[in-house]
Specification:
By secondary structure, this protein is an alpha/beta fold. It folds into 3 domains: 87 residues, Orthogonal Bundle (Arc Repressor Mutant, subunit A), CATH 1.10.10; 109 residues, 3-Layer(aba) Sandwich (Rossmann fold), CATH 3.40.50; 30 residues. It has 8 helices and 12 strands. The strands form 4 sheets. The protein has a 6-stranded parallel sheet, sandwiched between helices. Strands 1-3 form a two-stranded antiparallel ribbon. The chain is globular. It starts with 10 loop residues before the first strand and ends with a helix. The N terminus is likely disordered. The structure holds nicotinamide-adenine-dinucleotide (NAD). Nicotinamide-adenine-dinucleotide binds next to helix 5, strand 6 and helix 7. Nicotinamide-adenine-dinucleotide (NAD) binds next to helix 5, strand 6 and helix 7. Keywords: Cytoplasm, DNA-binding, NAD, Repressor, Transcription, Transcription regulation. This is Redox-sensing transcriptional repressor Rex.
Length: 238
Amino acid sequence: MSIPDERDLVRPAASGHGRHIPPASLARLTVYLRVLGTMMTEGIERVSSEELAEAAGVNSPKLRKDLSYLGSYGTRGVGYDVPYLSGQISAALGLTLDWRVAIVGAGHLGRALAGYPGFGSRGFEVVALFDADQMAVGQEVGWLRISPVEAMESILEKTRANMAVLAVPAEAAQGMCDRLVAAGITSILSFAPVVLQAPAEVQIRKVDMATELQILAYHAQRAQVSALATDAQARILR
Ligand SMILES: NC(=O)c1ccc[n+]([C@@H]2O[C@H](COP(=O)([O-])OP(=O)(O)OC[C@H]3O[C@@H](n4cnc5c(N)ncnc54)[C@H](O)[C@@H]3O)[C@@H](O)[C@H]2O)c1
């Protein structure tokens, strides 16, 4: 490992807490958190910003900027304290809270999410899985049993769910969103390909793989065009 830069030691700075973190930085913080988690399992206690940035696939000025949103700054020659920084990012992302997730819709996606073992270690516990299909109700997915959507409100209360995932068809999404909001859920991740309406205090995140693929295709096409242009220029100069 290289010698850590002393600016790398992260200290809490009261002024930084509660600052708005831009979405791109927020996304990168989750990557730093994952990298730091791996470092902790490897017993690494300190890391320089260059090493952390390289492991996360970003440049170190960007990493420093992202960490500045946590109210963190460093002191020359020490490096980041890995467990401390990890705790600091977790706190900023709200992961030290108890997130109890209910999944609505136990089809292909809902079952895959409910059966994924990786959420627990990242602070999310799937506590309920609902479906409208009576044939699906009662089936086991991992350690969960699919509950009837008719009983959703009482089960949300009993399980103290505070976050929901919508994995229902588009036509059912708004109705289920309304019921979740009426039941007090204010954080919803939706996979349904539809724009959902909800009060301003409700956070809705939409996951749209098709959009992501389109963006990927756009970048791939631009890279191709630029490679062709470079090639053509090289031919002319030859
Ligand atoms: N965002 C993405 O990248 C992405 C990818 C795949 C699928 N999707 C979307 O995710 C959703 C689920 O996809 P899927 O492949 O799992 O579909 P699916 O048909 O396999 O599952 C949908 C499930 O929802 C249940 N359901 C229907 N109405 C319901 C209601 N009111 N309450 C509770 N359950 C209800 C159905 O019985 C079914 O089990 C769809 O809207 C789909 O378009 C999004």
